[in-house]
Amino acid sequence: MADIFPDIQTTLAAYRAKTLKPSTVAADLLARLEAENPQLNAYLRTYAPEIAAAAAKADAAYASGTARPLEGIFVGVKDNLLVAGTRTGSASKMLEGYVAPYTGTAVGKLLDAGAIMIGKTNMDEFAMGSSTENSAYGPTKNPKDPSCVPGGSSGGSAAAVAAGLCHVALGSDTGGSIRQPASLCGCVGFKPTYGSVSRYGLMSMASSLDVIGPLANSVADARVVYDTIRGADEHDATSHYIKGAKKLAGDGSLKGVRVGVPREYFLPGLDADVEGCVQKGIAKLKALGAEIVDISLPNAEHGLAAYYVLMPAEVSTNLSRFDGVRYPASQMAGAASLIDGYVKSRAAFGPEPQRRILVGTYVLSAGYYDAYYRQAQKVRGLIVKDFNDAWQKVDIIVSPTSPTVAWPLGEKVDDPLAMYLSDIFTINANLVGIPSISLPCGEADGMPVGIQLAAARDEDLFLLDVAEAFEKAN
Q1: 78 is an active site residue
Q2: 8-16 and 219-229 helices cross at what angle (nearest 10)?
């Protein structure tokens, strides 16, 4: 679809002009899914009858002049987002067969606007991973090179967008899980300000870090989705309306925009070819009129360590509810005791969730809480201060999205620390709660490279404006 419809607005214009019908797009989409999804494994489940029926209703809506704003736009939904009546399992055997009892706010807003859900996209189990190899239902493959990973944990959503198997897709981002796969697959991935999109209906991984956002083929498409799903929600006390005030000059340039380049993000360990692409992206920002400013984020280097203390702690708390009593995969019926039932049922978790639950339980335990968890919270506070200081000097912070391009399947599966390092440039935005976006900025070794732009809290629309100016300059 990406090669036929360059953006959502073009598709909607064609629908309104009656030169194209949603049912025609649906037929093309279903043929593509049948041909390509078995290899890519981007979708765990698709809903062909429902897609066809929804497309026919969209045809009728355009014919009668009652079409909603996103009528006939096809959307992929990550498997940790609830949609009433559909199987939703966070790609885990723990929730095999679980059917969602309600629809989450973000997905509900898209469906209410007329979008059509194609299916549930593959992901790392319970969003724990950076390659979508931790799925209990097999890995997703990168459409640019099926021998490589698509990134994670929203790898299925990124692959679906990059392969043209949807207009846009929803993902979740806890430490880079939208932006990093967008970088590796060559699409746009936007992580909004924490709380600007309701988390109601998202299976929580780490509640103080999780954000729902779009993956798309363009900034304009990401903006359409974000504008649809953002806003306060009575079901989520952390949700709010953004209050950003910054504006661009209005002439397509970036005049007056100060772009900070943190020296800590351009050190050994960053692939030379990736750095070359990002430096060309920075030169493009300068050519657009932006002022490039050298800045320091002195505590940024500690973000990865702090994240891998705080995140598992929240994981161990959130996943304690999956005990086999209230959710599927229960072994209680044949268990010798309650404890035996717990042990058997929680064995349904894969290796990565088990690893993070154990680490999280350890850092929260008596005698270690002060040594690890409390210290990590202090480091998080220092990182927040670094970014707040930086916003006094700059409007945007630029960095690589990922230190490397997509790597071969299986290369890092047995080396968790190497896998964790792939999120080193994305994690701090989650710790601080600021909006951040990954944009394509070239290729290295024939694979996509992403450049990451970040803005101050609630300046999501300003960030999207800057990103769109960058994108249009290509």
Answers
A1: yes
A2: 80
Neighbours of 3 (CB within 10 A): 7
> pLDDT tens, 27-48?
999 999 999 999 999 999 999 9
Give catalytic status of residue 109 as yes or no: no
Cα–Cα nearest to 137, from 90, 177, 171: 90
Asked about 153 being catalytic, the answer comes back as: yes
Global confidence as pTM: 0.96
pLDDT tens-digit readout, 97-127: 899 999 999 999 999 999 999 999 999 999 9
CATH class, domain 8-229, is alpha beta
Q: Cβ distance 169 to 177 under 8 Å?
A: no
Please pick, among 90, 92, 135, 153, the residue that the annotation labels catalytic: 153
Q: Give 105's strand partners.
A: none
Give one DSSP letter per residue of 262-310, joined into a string.
EGGGSSTTS-HHHHHHHHHHHHHHHHTTPEEEEE--TTGGGHHHHHHHH
Contact 88, 98 (CB under 8 A): yes
